[in-house]
Write a structure and sequence with these properties.
Pfam families: DUF4160. The protein is an alpha+beta fold. It has two helices and five strands; from the N terminus they run E-E-E-E-E-H-H. It has one domain.
């Protein structure tokens, strides 16, 4: 699964799943062994990460929503994704 960004110990990945419960645009984030799947509109599909890291992730998604949507389309078409700036 392609790594889009890493910041404050959070690793953000994205891949296109054509079937199943994750077929809407979403990201997978991991922090210290905890994982969360969250849609680009901020809805948690499954999992959890610590609250303070979740707030950072939400802010990052809001800042980079257009880039995330672009990457989702690229991956859906089998094209190369691009990395997204980390939260600083």
């Amino acid at each position: 699964m392609p790594v889009l960004s890493m910041f404050y110990g959070i690793i953000v990945r994205m891949y296109k799943e054509n079937t199943g419960k994750h077929n809407m645009p979403h990201i997978h984030a991991e922090y210290s062994g905890d994982e969360i799947v969250i849609t680009l509109d901020g809805t948690v599909v499954e999992g959890k990460i610590p609250k303070n890291k979740f707030k950072l992730l939400e802010a990052w998604i809001e800042i980079h929503r257009e880039e995330l949507e672009a990457n989702w389309k690229l991956l859906a078409n089998g094209e190369q994704f691009f990395r997204i700036e980390p939260l600083r």
